[in-house]
């Protein structure tokens, strides 16, 4: 195997193993944010989508002359083909977000539709800061305009509440084919200085995945500023830690690996969120639950406008929102995202297109994609091979120049460049075509880490292409195919100790490295290697034809006779007589 290719492999492993995330420093929490008791649900699984029974449209209950202080709390269910949302009249908060097209992956619950919210969720709960006073709107009981809604066209749920001089009116507008809810409203009685509206997002999204540890690593909050998107994992918070971040933010969200709940202040006439406060609920290490509140300035006119997204991280839906909302599900590491993101988006689009238009299972899509990449790169591999052959042909001249000018580095460099020019040799000509598959491989790593379309997809003995192979068959096949391709590729190349060592070391290292990666990624890489074996065989024999090995020099007759008859017996020395 070419040393330059091996160097590329090592660099690739360093990039895979050592991503770094930059987290912001802690800051004090603004006043007005109160902690609440911790409620954590057990893990939940995923399976085929299960339809959610729609709720018929019913009128609001007649409460007569009952005081709003004593109104009973109720839940208004809003259903469409995509979701069932439950809006509690206490605090006008979202207490249920059931997704009809997604099921749990946890064993025993694969037939249940995903429920995003934990019990006691504060999503869309409201608190109002006016001067030094806090108005706990999340404790108010609102009067709904209807008792339930079945959304087959845009529908509006109106909620009103009043205590003293403060009157709050909220309109939640639902559409049947979107997970977005448009919120608009008015707060009367604020006074001339306006106030600050705190919108709840805590305590985070419930676990929905069989791989609890991996899902918990993805739990965190995300904000979007003019400088870009910042993701902070809950596990990085200290036990009981409280922090605040200053805006302005276009949107603020809490996420897991595949789902997100976010509030967005985007569009004409909206005011960006001015800040964010976070308080880790757990007193243990690596918390996965936190109270998150976004703050929205409200003028004396009292107008309020924002949007809510509570649903899956489907890239087309996120991208359609705009304002880089698709960055809530980042493809790539900070610092490398601008390079990896376009490739990952293109790869994801092609895989989904092949699945939907060619009607292939995703496992066969990956096999076809691996073949396609090899075919596309075939001309470049030929170019790399010919460059390697030319480099191999001038090796004796290079050694001669190095011996002649080993005491004069400057002259050595000049003569080497002259040699390259005369023989039309590019030292990197055989290397850079070999590097082209790696952006695709790295992009696929993030596609399998983040793409919800591949979630829970089985293939042959693999229960989930987005998770590791439980039997480790695919990683072993990948290592064997990598060794075979490297072995065949060394035909016609003068062996050296480094190449021989890497022939055995690199497949072993890559097998261990990829063992716990997504089985779909291993399947793609295995197909790449297996298709590469006949290609390497063809290129190696072309190398032998264009640059045949030199015959060995004839041995002296005496040496040849000794090898055939064996070494001569030692003669005893005769002692001289005195």
Task: Give a short overview.
The protein has 578 residues and is an alpha+beta fold.
Q: How would you portray this structure in words?
A:
With 578 residues, this protein is an alpha+beta fold. The protein has helices at 3-17, 212-218, 315-321, 337-357, 362-393, 395-404, 409-422, 432-435, 437-450, 473-489, 497-514, 519-546, 557-565, and strands at 58-59, 75-79, 83-88, 94-103, 113-115, 126-130, 133-135, 143-144, 146-150, 155-163, 166-174, 180-188, 195-200, 220-225, 228-233, 242-249, 251-255, 259-264, 273-280, 290-298, 303-312. It has a nine-stranded antiparallel β-sheet, with no helix packed on it. Strands 1-9-2-3-4-5 form a six-stranded mixed β-sheet, with no helix packed on it. The protein is elongated and about 115 Å long. It starts with a helix and ends in a 13-residue tail after the last helix.
CATH topology label of the largest domain: Beta-galactosidase, Chain A, domain 5
Strand fraction band? 15-25%
The profile of the biggest β sheet is: 9 strands, antiparallel
Low-confidence stretches: 1-9, 11-67
Judged by helices, strands and strand pairing, the structural class is alpha+beta
Shape assignment: elongated
Which CATH class of the largest domain applies here?
Answer: Mainly Beta
Total strand segments: 21
* Number of helices in the DSSP assignment: 13
What is the straight-line distance between the termini?
67 Å
